[in-house]
Specification:
Strand order of the largest sheet: 12-15-20-17-18
Strand content: over 45%
Order of helices and strands: EEEEEEEEEEEEEEEEEEEEEEEEEEEE
Radius of gyration: 24 Å
Largest sheet: 5 strands, antiparallel
Number of helices: 0
Structural class: mainly beta
Distance between the termini: 40 Å
Number of strands: 28
Helix content: under 10%
Length: 352
């Protein structure tokens, strides 16, 4: 239990380190005052935040899942409350599991940020009015997704994300639907049915979350979704993730008609996901080209690292031409100034 600004912690030995999964249940108390259960709390590893949330009053025990990366050895896991008034939350079934063979999904970003950490925190917020670098407003096509200022009763901007919409939509938006989209890539050796994805979503007025053209079942049609976040958790094997490009669409519905000054906006934060790799599927090197100037070029897939090696006769040991290079989905290039060498053989090694 955490009341006001209380905390509890435990020293945990994470062995060899790597990716782990923290899971727990959180709930809040019921009282005559509706705010009694609205406790803001944070989960930390060695005082670095990995999760934060504000509970709602009378919230039943609800499952939460937080992937984390740690180095080998002992680390301190803490749950910390932030409240100067009499607000209380309860925690139970706290577990930590090692996730061997799992990798982070790259390319997940909160709304209204220039960048954020892989667990959806430590964000660098964009300025209001700037075009969002990661979310597209695909309908109406004439509009651009931009950062918005915060208005009551919207949840305040920061520290992990900001509201986005189109220019002026925090003041007025015509009745209708506004469809936002973002994408990420699962590499060729990913097992799509092992993806564990989560985040916190808010919208004014309502929303529906769609993955690869299929409704996820996460939706909210009433007006209670913008003072607080709705937790989104996609368990393994239950959602249509695929190898390659995955696209989320968030359909935001503005329910009020002409003559009103009803705003519209979207907020999505703490996006995080992990997946298991298939060790029997190699890490393909696609579109490999070698030019006459001895430039090697290929597409580096997200989730893989690459190293170029060479040999002069295929009988001696291979030698490194480069250090490790990280795939991002774009072309990787390596030039070899071979000089007077008569010939060289090359290979590109790919590994997670």
């Amino acid at each position: 239990m955490i009341q006001r600004c209380g905390r509890f912690h435990k020293n945990v030995d994470f062995g060899d380190g790597g990716i782990y999964l923290l899971s727990f249940k959180v709930g809040s108390r019921t009282s005559a005052t509706s705010s009694d259960g609205k406790l803001e709390y944070e989960v930390r590893i060695d005082d670095v935040p990995i999760h934060n949330e504000t509970t709602t009053s009378a919230m039943p025990y609800t499952y939460r899942e937080v992937p984390l990366s740690v180095t080998a050895g002992k680390h301190t896991l803490s749950f910390v409350g932030y409240s100067s008034t009499d607000q209380t939350a309860f925690f139970d079934d706290v577990e930590i599991s090692r996730m061997p063979g799992y990798r982070w999904i790259t390319g997940l970003f909160n709304t209204g940020v220039l960048s954020n950490s892989k667990n959806g925190l430590l964000a660098v917020l964009a300025d209001p009015g700037d075009a969002d670098a990661h979310y597209r407003l695909i309908s109406p096509m004439s509009l651009t997704a931009v950062g918005l200022g915060q208005i009551p009763p919207w949840r305040s901007n920061g520290p992990n994300s900001s509201w986005i919409g189109f220019a002026g939509s925090e003041t007025y938006a015509p009745k209708g639907q506004y469809i936002y989209e973002f994408s990420f890539v699962l590499p060729a050796n990913a097992k799509p049915n092992t993806v564990r994805f989560s985040g916190f979503l808010a919208a004014d007025n309502g929303f529906e979350l769609i993955l690869n053209g299929v409704s996820t079942g996460f939706a909210n049609t009433h007006e209670g979704t913008f003072p607080t976040f709705q937790y989104i958790f996609m368990s393994p094997g239950s959602f249509p993730f695929v190898v390659g490009t995955n696209t989320f669409r968030i359909v935001v519905t503005n329910t009020y008609g002409p003559g009103t000054t009803n705003p519209s906006g979207l907020r999505f934060e703490q996006l995080r996901g992990i997946f298991e790799i298939d060790p029997e599927i190699g890490s393909p090197v696609t579109d490999l080209q070698i030019s006459s100037a001895m430039e090697l070029k290929w597409t580096g897939l997200p989730g893989f690292n690459y190293r170029v090696q060479y040999s002069t006769n295929l009988e001696s040991d291979w030698e490194d031409l480069t250090g490790d290079m990280t795939g991002t989905g774009d072309a990787l290039r390596v030039c070899d100034p071979v000089g007077g060498t008569a010939r060289r053989f090359y290979r590109v090694i790919a590994f997670p």
